[in-house]
Amino acid sequence: MKAPRLEIKLNQLQHNAKKLIENLALQGISITGVSKATMAMPEIVNIWINAGIHSIGESRIENIESINKVNNRVRTLLTRIPMLSQVDQVVSQASISCNSELSVLNALAGAAEKQNLRHGVLLMVELGDLREGILPKDLNEVVKQVMNLPNLELIGIGANLGCQNGVAPDQKNMNELSLIMNTVEADFKIKLEWCSGGNSANLPWLTAGGKPDRLNHLRIGEALLLGREPLTRTIIKGLYTDAITLVVEAIETKLKPTTPWGIQYQTSFSDAPSKQNQKSNDDRNEIFDSRILLAIGEQDIDPSGLKADGIEIKGASSDYLVVSSSQNTLKVGCEQRFSLNYSALLRAMTSPYIKKYFVN
Ligand SMILES: *Cc1c(COP(=O)(O)O)cnc(C)c1O
Question: What does pLDDT average to over the chain?
Answer without folding.
Answer: 96
